[in-house]
Design the sequence.
């Protein structure tokens, strides 16, 4: 087992009631669960997102913490939050990193694996 390991799981949801396809506005929610699988307690300091729509438009977002918090996770502990993204296309993707600092002072990045934002396919 690694001393520093953060697992990131993602669930996504298309928010039809907030979207307006005629205006190229597609709103998505994503729920992230961050779990400390390492041996050392660690705190999430900041985030770096890379958001890409299906037109190839890339937006980078950097900021402190997540949803106004900088969760401190003991080994085995998880933190879950929901946030959102607005795209100009019906399909896009997100990926990134969380910048972490362990209680022993070691700084490391927790990888956010790429995930897809997509409107549900409609069957006729």
Sequence:
């Amino acid at each position: 087992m690694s001393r520093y390991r953060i697992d990131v799981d993602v669930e996504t949801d298309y928010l039809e009631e907030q979207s307006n396809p005629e205006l190229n506005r597609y709103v998505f929610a994503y729920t992230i669960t961050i779990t400390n699988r390492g041996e050392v307690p660690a705190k999430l300091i900041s985030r770096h997102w890379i958001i890409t729509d299906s037109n190839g438009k890339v937006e980078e977002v950097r900021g402190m913490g997540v949803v106004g918090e900088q969760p401190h996770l003991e080994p085995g502990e998880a933190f879950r939050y929901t946030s959102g993204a607005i795209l100009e296309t019906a399909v896009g993707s997100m990926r990134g990193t969380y910048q972490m600092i362990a209680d022993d002072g070691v700084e490391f990045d927790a990888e956010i694996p790429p995930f897809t934002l997509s409107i549900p396919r409609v069957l006729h």
Q: What stands out?
A: The chain has no helices and eight strands. Residues 20 and 26 are 6 Å apart (CA to CA). The mean pLDDT is 96. The two ends are 49 Å apart (CA to CA).
